Amino acid sequence: MISFLSLGLVGIVAIALPITFSTPAVGALQVRVSPTNPKLGDTIAVAIEQQPGTTGSTPTIKLQDKTYPAFEIAPNRFRAMLPTTPLEQPGVRRFQVIAGDQVRNMAVKVGNRSFPIQRINLPPGKSGISATQYELDRVAAFKKLVTPQKYWNGAFARPNKGRISAIYGVRRYYNGKFAKDYYHRGVDYAGGVGSPVVAPASGRVALVGTVSQGFRIHGNIVGIDHGQGVTSAFLHLSRIDVKEGDMVKPGQVIGAVGATGAVTGPHLHWGLYVHGEAVDPVPWREQGFN
Ligand SMILES: [Zn+2]
């Protein structure tokens, strides 16, 4: 478990930057981006409105080399979710909203954010435990899920009553060298061993894995598919109370806090993914995305 007192914490600074809108032509797609001043780690929601009576294809979003789906959330209204992570550079993201033969060019400015820094010193030659290919494959397949149904509703609940012992996005130096691909891909809760882990939102249990199956790093794990490319993983469990295919409701117990996998002490790690990228759960917990 990460002790926060030893982290050399750097304060979190959100820099609010204005969003740029392109001017819509009459009858064109109406596009709204929220939050208006996202920062690294935030989820960007893109709401798309089509003219009533428009028939045609469901919009998609092209951003850099990726295409993200939008899902219908009301008649003629669609929404896509774009992840951002601490590994990216802050700055302007240009993207296209495409629906049939209609295209809108958009831009959003992603602000910088300072994440806490953790310095880890390992004895020379100590590499630690490595993951099995089996667990990497299972987790990768889970994170790729994009189910058209939206199972969640409203803001997410906290999955454990323990205090938060490590926030999202912590960066690391190993023996003084910056780990450029590492960031803390979730939130840690310092609940006691055996304390309940609950589903933060509705969804379908899409992954159950155990140490005995080869989940050497993750430990006993439950993955919930919340739908529309949003998934949650709960790591290091001492006990699992659900099975793959179960539908769970917010607050439903799915397991218990433990110290399985690669940990130095008992805690719950909750990772929240949007299209496979670990995003900051805080905006999902506070205002939510509906
Ligand atoms: Zn963690």
Automatic annotation (TrEMBL):
It holds the Pfam family Peptidase_M23. Residues 183-281 form the M23ase beta-sheet core domain. One of its GO terms (molecular function) is metalloendopeptidase activity. InterPro entries: Cell_wall_metabolism_enzyme, Dup_hybrid_motif, M23ase_b-sheet_dom. It comes from the Bacteria. This is Peptidase.
